[in-house]
Specification:
about 200 residues, mainly alpha, two-stranded antiparallel sheet, 7 helices, about 40% helix, binds iron/sulfur cluster
């Protein structure tokens, strides 16, 4: 799945690591006027041709702005925020960023097709790192999500360190002799990987 402003992909944030969010939207409509995705527009079009449902759903409501500058005229704060996120990441390029607007948002910011809005809208923000517009009602929820994930990763790293200290020979797990410390560290690295792009190696 990918959603608007979703700076992670199915591969980066596995479904089991996401929590269903409460309804904290105060219906400002900003995300409907400044959506972006992890993929380039070219890639999105290719995905629709391949029949990827999430891409088809996304492009069924979102139309691309002609340029980043056009999007900036509508939601300047969000454009600046997204570009800053992209610049900090080494797996994304500003040239690949496209901003989108939805034709179904009313001037007051309400969804005019609410009951049949696509999944990307129903599930936004997908996780704590979705780059939602400044002032979004989900800010507090996203902060909590980020802190929870950071704590979980710190706990994993601490456990691996403790096991290493307790290992009888410095090679094997102290209570699971069939597992080596290297395998254990590999497991920890796998768990950390989804958040690598957000700096998990430094948490
Ligand atoms: S930016 Fe946040 S508060 Fe505004 S419409 Fe989107 S989800 Fe709701
Ligand atoms: S379909 Fe509705 S919720 Fe989704 S972007 Fe358009 S106006 Fe917003």
């Amino acid at each position: 799945m990918f959603d608007m402003n979703y700076y992670g992909t199915e591969e980066t944030i596995p479904a089991e690591n996401r929590e269903e969010q409460p309804d904290m939207c105060h219906k400002c409509g900003k995300c409907c006027r400044s959506a972006t995705t992890y993929h380039s527009h070219k890639k999105l079009l290719q995905m629709t041709e391949e029949g990827v449902k999430d891409a088809i759903d996304f492009l069924s409501v979102f139309k691309p702005y002609r340029s980043i500058e056009d999007a900036r005229l509508v939601e300047p704060e969000q454009v600046a925020q997204v570009l800053k996120v992209v610049e900090l990441r080494d797996d994304m390029n500003v040239e690949d960023v496209t901003f989108y607007y939805c034709e179904h948002v009313s001037p007051e910011g309400l969804c005019t097709i609410y009951e049949r809005r696509p999944r990307c809208c129903r599930e936004a923000p997908g996780h704590g790192w979705s780059a939602m517009p400044p002032g979004c009602g989900f800010e507090g929820w996203q902060f909590e999500q980020r802190e929870k994930q950071k704590r979980m990763i710190r706990d994993l790293k601490t456990s691996a360190y403790i096991m290493e200290q307790m290992s009888p020979d410095g090679v094997h797990h102290p209570v699971r002799p069939d597992t080596t410390l290297e395998e254990l560290n590999q497991m920890v690295l796998e768990k950390i990987k989804p958040w690598k792009g957000f700096g998990s190696h430094h948490w």
